[in-house]
């Protein structure tokens, strides 16, 4: 369970994030939507203790993220390409992450078999370093890397961005399947309202750092979100 | 159009991270450039006035060493001078002709420090020759025009063959063979150099040859750059085939082994890290300064010893978290306690220092005492300096672009941080003082032992020291992450 309590982040005079209370229970597939600069990446960075909160705290299963490191064995994330090690081959990267999460080479190999379709033959045994892969393939490596080791909480920042149409659909289906596991909590931020609505069972929309919608996904959610963002345009 | 390019260059310079740095760092950098400039200017005076002492005319002496200078110049340019590809790409689709872009690139390369550093030597030297030596003004000027042409020819040659590994290695192979022949006194490179260049001076009409070669090369280089203004030719980094590698026996050591495996791959596959490694290896030869005046006290010999065994630390270790700057957030969110992460880095230092200590046994051929001094310095490096280097790394917030070679060599110098300077005191001055005092009062063996004991104490206290280091890293963590983000 993730508890976000009185979190705010201030840069200079701008308050880029201000969330009083937000709780994400175990097993939820949580979607975060918002325009650029709304605060999505800021929230994830605070969650992963990559930046310091100006106030408040985030707790994962009772562990405060900026006070202890014990939450790290529950969480796995892929935010941007600073989560990739460019000079490694995808295999080395996967084994590296596996080693850190107690998975030996054989179990990682076994785990990777399910992504053969997603990888399209361009990633494993491709004899390329991650830095020489296309942006879309780099993304695939990052996302799959985040799934290694059966983490309890998986954080993905805009996973659908930069992926080709087929891959987007494959990823969507993948997340749907994985999120059926009640032990696994997904946190996904996205610009793509359609994908998010399909995949997540709860969607929070933030605008200028503040929560403006908190919806349990239903058949009307996509329309609701589209209307909201359209209304932002005429302002 | 050229004016517009110039304006862009100016903006780039003024907004570069080095320029925008704190005043201390700017002063430090100014000092560094001034120091380098002084070496060249001082060299001019040194060669002029020292020539008579070794029995040559100044211009003769210069001619003897010029060939070697050209060779070293080409070598340095190979490592540090690259086509400014990133700056060119934005211009390709704009309304700027390829000729203009190629011309701009060429000028950019020519204006770099490597090109005009030679002038800092040539101008005072020429002035001395003309005004003090009373040599023919025209002859001297034409002579140096020819020499300067040679330097620029190097620049062009490097631009053309920099990407072609085969050509480069054959060239260097040639240099090594010639060097070997010289060493074994089969040929005398200096005499050849003198023959060519002094001969040029004496038959000044020949000055036209290098200048003509230069012009021809300039035109060729321009068309070469133009031909390579494509994303799949000159403007993209060579993409080496990726090999999945693993040093199996390291896997026995758990997290430590995993990180060391990674760091080895880092050094093997990143230009910047490789330059630092080569620099570290070169430090092994620093001990040869033993032969120069000023290093014959045991006090100064400890200084040499620390660098000989700690060269890798200096080049690589000082920037330890920064090597991981492009994926620091990944490291920070993995299930690895900070302590283990740092211990793995520390293990690398220990390995490097130990290897240096073993390789330095070559110095025993000079003097056993000298080797023991180096060995003692090595022990101190192992037990004390390894931690201090790690500690200094906590304050190093400059990100490193792993794919850029020159940044690997020079960016270390751009880190004049007061905390790092302060940490230099226990790293260098303290062991020098302790060793010097012990040797003076008690002799060699107690002196070596004293440094060894200090090292041992450091080693035994390592757990406590690590806790301290981790605390400091934690405090600096957020600013480090933010700073590393900027660089990428």
TrEMBL record, chain A:
Keywords: ATP-binding, Nucleotide-binding, Transport
Gene3D superfamilies assigned to the protein according to its UniProt record, in alphabetical order: P-loop containing nucleotide triphosphate hydrolases
GO MF annotation list: ATP binding; ATP hydrolysis activity
InterPro entries documented for this protein: AAA+_ATPase (IPR003593), ABC_transporter-like_ATP-bd (IPR003439), ABC_transporter-like_CS (IPR017871), ABC_Transporter_VariousFunc (IPR051782), P-loop_NTPase (IPR027417)
Keyword Nucleotide-binding carried by entry: yes
Keyword Membrane annotated: no
Domain annotation ABC transporter: ranges: 2-233
Name assigned to this protein: Glycine betaine/carnitine/choline transport ATP-binding protein OpuCA
Organism: bioreactor metagenome
Taxonomic lineage of the native organism: unclassified sequences, metagenomes, ecological metagenomes
